[in-house]
Design brief:
The structure holds two protein chains of two kinds. In chain A, 48% of the residues lie in helices and 14% in strands. By secondary structure, chain A is of the alpha+beta class. In chain A, the strands form two sheets. Chain A has a four-stranded mixed β-sheet with strand order 1-4-5-8, covered by helices on one side. In chain A, strands 2-3-7-6 form a four-stranded antiparallel β-sheet, with no helix packed on it. In chain A, helix 4 runs parallel beside helix 8 (244-264), helix 8 (244-264) runs parallel beside helix 10 and helix 9 (274-301) packs antiparallel against helix 10. The longest helix of chain A has 28 residues, at 274-301. Chain A is globular and about 75 Å long. The two termini of chain A are 39 Å apart. Chain B has three domains: 7-105, Orthogonal Bundle (Butyryl-Coa Dehydrogenase, subunit A, domain 1); 111-195, Butyryl-CoA Dehydrogenase, subunit A, domain 2 (Beta Barrel); 200-339, Up-down Bundle (Butyryl-CoA Dehydrogenase, subunit A, domain 3). Chain B has helices spanning 7-22, 32-41, 59-71, 78-90, 95-105, 199-235, 247-275, 282-304, 306-309, 316-329; strands at 111-114, 121-124, 129-140, 147-152, 155-160, 165-169, 177-188, 237-238, 241-242. A four-stranded antiparallel β-sheet of chain B has the order 2-3-7-6, with no helix packed on it. A three-stranded mixed β-sheet of chain B has the order 1-4-5, covered by helices on one side. In chain B, strands 8-9 form a two-stranded antiparallel sheet. In chain B, helix 6 (199-235) runs antiparallel to helix 10. The longest helix of chain B has 37 residues, at 199-235. Classes of the chains: A alpha+beta, B alpha+beta. Chain A: Residues 122-215 form the Acyl-CoA oxidase/dehydrogenase middle domain.
Chain lengths: 385, 355
């Protein structure tokens, strides 16, 4: 048993912290709040200069070749500083799909460019009728010689309006069982027939509806074999379910809350005061949540597949972040509800923004209900008949 | 980093589990025979220095032991005798105390603990004696203890069973508890176990071990309760299918299992931190967390089993009765907390070099 990070891992954590302290500026945060993109080109460039966009990509494809724990530290700490990391998350997930099933040409073409920060992907998976039941997606890619004709609609697509490419999941065999008739494609977003429309979220960020109308793409854009895209798609969901981002944010909210109360209402932190007791309870939960999240990369490093465990991490941390965000406002009062635009706001509107945006965590990458299904069926082996 | 038990720890766990299975332990009961078998296994020497005949800093194995005892819902004076008394005696000079540690390790002696909440008074009688008086309200294992470590006027004393009067009480989970009367008990100053007014100082480390024991016990009990519920849900049929197929139940179980897993990792972390001297606040937070998880599980399993959960012939009721018994008998989590006024102003939750 060993709960310590190595000296190298501690040094790396400190490096990430120092970087975020310096680079996640008020100007950067204002930029993303105003534009509503969870992406800052200038910050992204800085990440690329550090080599951290390709942190866990293989060295031969321009990455740093770091392992799961380093990636976990990176995710947790950048989330703690509320750095705009959504583009990096999406790029990381989709690049791993390419690394998993893509051919050598695709790996050479895309992975080094992603690592350098030259390419932004968006994830064309979710559809209006296919959210939790993603495998039921209806967007069609019909083969015609060495081309495919794509028709369909994607929804809630983050970054579609700024992305260079879309990794699209489309049905290539409508007769096959639903998981077995799906293929993945890398589509240039400038291709004729793609139309993008904005949707605005409760969190204040833009996502999109993306229409594909008679879009013609080359066969070489397909990642992996035809009808075998589900494996890479499911891998993406596993990466998204580690929960490290949410636990990092929960830690930050809790820290800022305690800091504020120590300064403004220290009597609330007297032992046995209800506020102190609530925060003690949350501190305990954050510590427990952190263990659930780190169990996921540890299992991956051991070559195990963290299935129920990843769902536990995702379920617990996303629900906890909502709880922490709500409690923070309850114990600090109405000042915490002032937005980033308002005078007298707290930490540039952090609490208000986080309360709104934390509602996303329990929905994206498999809702809490879906995570509970996975835990019940695959973790607890509860009978379903 | 590695959250798993080592090979040796797994072997110890298997041996202990086998013992508890073979003994067909009755839930919510104390067995003297089992106590002696636990002694043979060496569990009472865990955390006791090798110099005193123990196994040294094997705090992680205290976590393993407590978890298994909790899973089987065994009542035992492990907290009082091993995590508190053996540690306090081990800090004393002289062969008398050394012998007491040996007697604990071998399972010959059971020592109970009377905490400060009982308002027992100690007054200096003369240069060599103290006079102790008062009433300790609900003392666990009071009727079978060979002696007591008693916090009186914030000073620790050893008092033998012959010096006090014990009256049996009937407790919610059948745990042996009693009321202990100190009627002007005269105690030699050499039986004083702490500096005058400094009981908490010597109890600081034993309390951490106590929290490790209690939180691990409660985590094991949480899992024991959940295992029962899952077994029941997979066999009980209603509306033509097993009730596990209803999401109202399966999702509830998923939530509870998630918390139970988190509590298990948390208790392992605490054991590891105590071993590595890095447990600043983990023991308090871990106890709070494990108690909450156990309350959630113990109350849920009764509800999940419907009418049967409420019946004494089914095992779910054992957990429902045990949970508050365990919480209130030992250091109640609602009475302790991390002082957030002392937290680092910058990063209160920064957890340093450990996870």
């Amino acid at each position: 048993m060993d709960f310590a990070f190595t000296d190298e891992q501690i040094a790396f954590r400190n490096e990430v912290r120092a970087f975020c302290e310096k680079e996640v500026t008020k100007e950067i945060m204002d930029e993303i709040y105003v534009k509503g993109d969870e992406h800052s080109p200038s910050f992204y460039k800085k990440l690329a200069e550090k080599g951290w966009i390709g942190l866990d990509f293989p060295v031969e494809y321009g990455g740093l070749g770091k392992k799961q724990i380093e990636m976990a530290i990176f995710r947790e700490e950048t989330a703690y500083y509320m750095a705009p990391m959504m583009s990096n998350e999406i790029n990381n997930i989709l690049t791993h799909s390419i690394l998993l099933i893509g051919d050598e040409n695709q790996k050479k073409e895309f992975v080094p460019s992603v690592a350098k920060g030259n390419i932004l992907f968006c994830m064309g998976y979710t559809e209006p009728g296919s959210g939790s039941d993603l495998a039921s997606l209806k967007t069609r890619a019909v083969k015609d010689g060495d081309k495919y004709l794509v028709n369909g609609q994607k929804i809630f697509t983050t970054n579609a309006h700024i992305a260079d490419y879309c990794v699209l999941a489309a049905r290539t065999d409508p007769q096959a069982p639903k998981h077995k008739g799906i293929s993945l494609f890398i589509i240039d977003m400038k291709t004729k027939g793609i139309e993008i429309g904005p949707l605005w979220t409760l969190g204040g960020y833009r996502v999109n509806t993306v229409y594909f109308e008679n879009v013609i793409i080359d066969e070489s854009t397909r990642i992996g074999r035809e009808n075998e895209g589900w494996k890479a798609l499911a891998l993406a969901l596993d990466i998204e379910r580690s929960g490290l981002v949410y636990v990092g944010k929960a830690r930050r909210i809790l820290d800022e809350t305690i800091k504020y109360l120590n300064r403004e209402k220290p009597e609330c932190l007297e032992p046995n005061h209800w506020v102190s007791e609530k925060l003690n309870g949350l501190l305990a939960e954050v510590k427990a949540a952190r263990l659930l999240t780190y169990r996921v990369p540890l299992m991956q490093a051991e070559g195990k597949v963290p299935n129920g465990e990843a769902s536990m991490a995702k379920l617990y941390t996303t629900e906890l972040l909502k709880k922490v965000s709500t409690t923070a406002i309850e114990v600090m009062g109405k000042d915490a509800l002032l937005t980033h635009k308002s005078m007298r706001n707290l930490v540039n509107g952090l609490f208000e923004e986080n309360y709104r945006s934390s509602a996303m965590g329990t929905i994206v990458a498999g809702t809490s209900q879906i995570q509970r299904e996975i835990i019940a069926k695959r973790g607890l082996h509860l009978a379903s008949k | 980093m590695d959250f798993n038990l080592t090979k040796e720890q797994k072997m110890f766990q298997q041996t202990l589990r086998k013992l508890l299975e073979n003994k067909e332990v009755e839930k919510n009961s104390f067995s003297r025979d089992l106590w002696e078998r636990l002694a043979e296994l060496g569990t009472f020497g865990l955390g006791v220095s090798e110099e005193l005949g123990g196994f040294g800093d094997e705090y992680e194995l205290i976590q393993v032991t407590a978890y298994e005892l909790g899973k089987y819902l065994v009542h035992s004076p492990f907290y009082e005798t091993v995590t508190i008394s053996a540690q306090v005696f081990g800090k004393q000079e002289g062969s008398v105390w050394r012998k007491k540690v040996e007697e604990i390790i071998s399972g010959q002696k059971i020592i109970s603990f009377i905490d400060k909440a009982n308002n027992i008074i100690a007054e200096k009688e003369d240069l060599k004696h103290w006079r102790i008086y008062g009433k300790a309200e609900v003392v666990s294992f009071g009727q079978i203890a060979d002696g007591f470590i008693c916090s009186a006027s914030n000073t620790l004393f050893y008092v033998s069973k012959d010096q006090v009067t014990s009256v049996d009480l009937d407790f919610i989970d059948n745990r042996p508890v009693s009321q202990i009367y100190f009627e002007n008990v005269i105690v030699l100053d050499q039986n004083r176990l702490s500096e005058v007014g400094q009981s908490e100082k010597i109890l600081e480390f034993p309390r951490k071990l106590g929290r490790l024991f209690t939180s691990s016990y409660m985590t094991g009990a949480s899992q024991g309760a959940l295992d029962l519920a899952i077994e029941y849900m997979n066999t009980r049929e209603q509306f033509g299918k097993t009730i596990s197929s209803f999401q109202a139940l399966s999702h509830w179980a998923a939530d509870l299992q998630t918390m139970s897993d988190a509590a298990l990792l948390f208790t392992r972390q605490l054991g590891w931190e105590i071993t590595n001297g890095n447990d600043t606040e983990t023991s308090i937070l871990c106890l709070k967390y494990a108690a909450q998880v156990y309350k959630n599980c113990a109350t849920a399993v009764v509800q999940m089993a419907g009418g049967y959960g409420f019946m004494m012939e089914y095992d779910m009721q054992h957990y429902y009765r045990n949970v508050l018994g365990t919480e209130q008998i030992y250091e109640a989590p609602q009475n302790i907390s991390v002082d957030l006024r002392l937290k680092d102003q910058k990063e209160a939750s920064l957890l340093g070099v450990t996870i």
